[in-house]
Amino acid sequence: MEKRNELYRGKAKSVYTTDDADRLILLFRNDTSAFDGKKIEQLERKGMVNNRFNGFIMQQLEAAGIPTQFDRLLSDTECLVKKLDMIPVECVVRNYAAGSLVKRLGVEEGMALVPPTFELFLKDDAKGDPFINTSHVVTFGWATAEQLTRMQELTLQVNQVLTQLFDQAGLMLVDFKLEFGLFHGEIVLGDEFSPDGCRLWDKATRKKMDKDRFRQGLGGVIEAYEEVAHRLGVPLD
């Protein structure tokens, strides 16, 4: 597989074209940002940890029948993925109250949400990824009603699989965001799943094991990511 031109450079990943029109290479960088890029740092080993973590999670989801963009790892920091026509909508599931939900609704952090909530956000950094509803998605043509139904179905299925997986590792899957795209007309899970895009707490202590350690200046960010990976059995060596 020949790596060619940089197609897109995000906050923590770069996307490259290949000699296959249907495949891209994702490069996970050590860049770490928060608050719409106002706080940026380089964290050693982060690219490697997130690349391997994402590969492990995507393989678990594929085994559960969930179609994903992931093909295979290429190196410590790179993986090969299907080229998707991305839908600019983030699907968010919350199993426990945290983050923006606490600020918006004034509920107590850590409150169990039964059933879990499902929310939509427009993926637009310039606008701050605003909260949207299903009507907005269809009216503005970001996805069809049928595509959105499929996205919600897959998101909730991911939640079932990963809640159990993390629970067995002594972790609470507090919330997470997913992105989807189209591959030859099929809705497929895209982007990544890593501690950058979810909240994970230790079941016994409720210690935060995710990017909130960076956002809140708690330190030990990569050490927490590596501990989560170790508990799950993700090979990092």
TrEMBL record:
<dbReference type="InterPro" id="IPR050089">
    <property type="entry name" value="SAICAR_synthetase"/>
</dbReference>
<keyword id="KW-0547">Nucleotide-binding</keyword>
<dbReference type="InterPro" id="IPR028923">
    <property type="entry name" value="SAICAR_synt/ADE2_N"/>
</dbReference>
<comment type="pathway">
    <text>Purine metabolism; IMP biosynthesis via de novo pathway; 5-amino-1-(5-phospho-D-ribosyl)imidazole-4-carboxamide from 5-amino-1-(5-phospho-D-ribosyl)imidazole-4-carboxylate: step 1/2.</text>
</comment>
<dbReference type="GO" id="GO:0009236">
    <property type="term" value="P:cobalamin biosynthetic process"/>
</dbReference>
<dbReference type="InterPro" id="IPR033934">
    <property type="entry name" value="SAICAR_synt_PurC"/>
</dbReference>
<comment type="similarity">
    <text>Belongs to the SAICAR synthetase family.</text>
</comment>
<keyword id="KW-0658">Purine biosynthesis</keyword>
<protein>
    <recommendedName>
        <fullName>Phosphoribosylaminoimidazole-succinocarboxamide synthase</fullName>
        <ecNumber>6.3.2.6</ecNumber>
    </recommendedName>
</protein>
<keyword id="KW-0436">Ligase</keyword>
<dbReference type="GO" id="GO:0006189">
    <property type="term" value="P:'de novo' IMP biosynthetic process"/>
</dbReference>
<dbReference type="GO" id="GO:0005524">
    <property type="term" value="F:ATP binding"/>
</dbReference>
<keyword id="KW-0067">ATP-binding</keyword>
<dbReference type="GO" id="GO:0005829">
    <property type="term" value="C:cytosol"/>
</dbReference>
<dbReference type="InterPro" id="IPR001636">
    <property type="entry name" value="SAICAR_synth"/>
</dbReference>
<feature type="domain" description="SAICAR synthetase/ADE2 N-terminal">
    <location>
        <begin position="7"/>
        <end position="231"/>
    </location>
</feature>
<dbReference type="InterPro" id="IPR018236">
    <property type="entry name" value="SAICAR_synthetase_CS"/>
</dbReference>
<dbReference type="Pfam" id="PF01259">
    <property type="entry name" value="SAICAR_synt"/>
</dbReference>
<dbReference type="GO" id="GO:0004639">
    <property type="term" value="F:phosphoribosylaminoimidazolesuccinocarboxamide synthase activity"/>
</dbReference>
